Amino acid sequence: MSLPQTQSVYDDSLLPGEADIDALVRGEHTDPFAILGPHGDGEGTVVRVYLPHAVAVDLLARDTGEKLADMEASRVPGLFVCRLAEARPYLLRIRWASGEQLTEDPYSFGPLLGEMDLYLFAEGNHRNLGHCLGAQCLSVEGVGGVRFAVWAPNARRVSVVGPFNGWDGRRHPMRLRHPAGVWEIFIPRLAPGEAYKYELLGPHGILPLKADPVALATETPPNTASVVAAPLEHAWQDHDWMRQRAARQAADAPLAIYEVHVGSWRRDEDGQLLGWQQLIERLIPYVKEMGYTHIELLPIMEHPFGGSWGYQPLSQFAPSARYGRREDFAGFVDACHQAGLGVLLDWVPAHFPTDSHGLGRFDGTALYEYDHPFEGFHQDWDTFIYNLGRTEVHGFMIASALHWLREFHVDGLRVDAVASMLYRDYSRKEGEWIPNRHGGRENLEAIDFLRHLNDVVKTEAPGALVIAEESTAWPGVSKPTAEGGLGFDFKWNMGWMHDTLKYMAEDPIHRTHHHDRMTFGLIYAFSERFILPVSHDEVVHGKRSLIDKMPGDRWQKFANLRAYLSFMWTMPGKKLLFMGCEFGQWREWSHDHELDWYLLNYGDHQGVQQLVKDLNQLYRQEPALHQQDCVSDGFQWLIGDDRHNSVFSWLRWSREGQPLLVIANFTPVVRHGYRIGVPSGGIWQEALNSDAECYAGSNVGNAGGVAADELASHGQPFSLNLKLPPLGILILRPA
Question: Of 288, 318, 642, 677, which has the most beta carbons under 10 Å away?
Answer without folding.
Answer: 318
